[in-house]
Amino acid sequence: MSSWFKRKEKGIQTSTEEKKDTPKGLWYKTPTGKIVESEDLAKNFYVSPEDDYHVRIGSKEYFEILFDNNQFKELDEKLSAKDPLKFVDTKPYSDRLKAAQQKTGLKDAVRTAVGESMGKELVVACMDFSFIGGSMGSVVGEKIARAIDVAKKKKIPFVMISKSGGARMMEAAFSLMQLAKTSAKLAQLAEAKIPYISLCTDPTTGGTTASYAMLGDINIGEPGALIGFAGPRVVKDTVGKDLPEGFQTSEFLLEHGFLDFIAHRKELKKKINLYIDLITNQPLRK
Fold first, then answer.
1. Which of 145, 151, 256, 285 has the most crowded Cβ, counting Cβ within 10 A?
2. pLDDT tens by residue, 218-262
3. What is the enclosing helix (H) or strand (E) of 159?
4. Burial class of residue 231, CB neighbours in 10 A (0-12, 13-18, 19+)
5. What values do phi and psi take at 155, rounded to 5?
6. Mean pLDDT across the stretch 161-183?
7. How far apart are the first and last CA of the chain?
8. C-alpha distances in angstroms, 95 versus 157, 201, 240?
9. Does 3 score more than 60 pLDDT?
């Protein structure tokens, strides 16, 4: 039987020559199998309306969500990493940096900015997983530290949005030093009685979790986000036991007291500002 008759039997009327592929990026398929138009996804804060799945997004999208009219001043936007160890794995670290910068249009795995959110100033630092897995290197630590300094100087709240695979192995000890550095800066912010809100998104792991991600005056998670130090597979191999259902999800951490609450992305801006209003004894904003 010819291929034409096989197609006819299956109800396929369009000839191969006439078939047109769907433009790349027009549709998005969630892990649960739901298909969503990319345009509808963007309008819905990058949350699938079919199954409420929170799609991974980066600093560009979070800044749009949090800052009024997407107006903000980016801080230290040209800061870029060096290669002090001349590190080489499958390729030189310097080449890996250049490739990531060209692919993403970012300088490193975090962007920091200051702007108004619901009418009041806010400093926001947001990680980008697309840049070498959101790994924390010297530039990430330095930009976060400088952003905290701005919040302290201007006496305005600081928001940290984490999305990271952990410390950047290509910078070895230089990367690990950022855990202590950022934690010390946050201690200074606490001494100045300036609010610090930490938002943990999917995934928040490794050295990021072991430092600034879990040090917030209030710790928030996004629905279904993976949050932990080592991944579930590594933990299971280490302890040799089956893990509880939903282990290391936002919901699991909330139940066990590691998070204060889980915020749906549609409510994120409102919830963050509500907390700031309460802690600073300000009139509630609508």
1. 151
2. 999 999 999 999 988 889 999 999 889 899 999 999 999 999 999
3. strand 158-164
4. middle
5. 60, 50
6. 96
7. 68
8. 37, 28, 39
9. no
**pLDDT band at residue 284, thresholds of 50, 70 and 90?**
low
d(CA 84, CA 198): 30
Residue 279: in which H helix or E strand, if any?
Answer: helix 268-279
User: Which residue has tokens 């979070």?
Assistant: 62
Taking a C-beta distance cutoff of 8 angstroms, is the pair 269, 286 a contact?
no
**Strand, helix or coil at 47?**
strand
Enter the tokens of residue 167.
Answer: 């410390």
What span, in angstroms and rounded, lies between the C-alpha atoms of 22 and 25? 9
pLDDT band of residue 25 (cuts 50, 70, 90) is: low
**pTM score, two decimals?**
0.88
Contact between 63 and 106 under an 8 Å Cβ cutoff? The reply is no
Q: What is the biggest distance separating any 2 CA atoms in the chain, rounded to whole angstroms?
A: 80
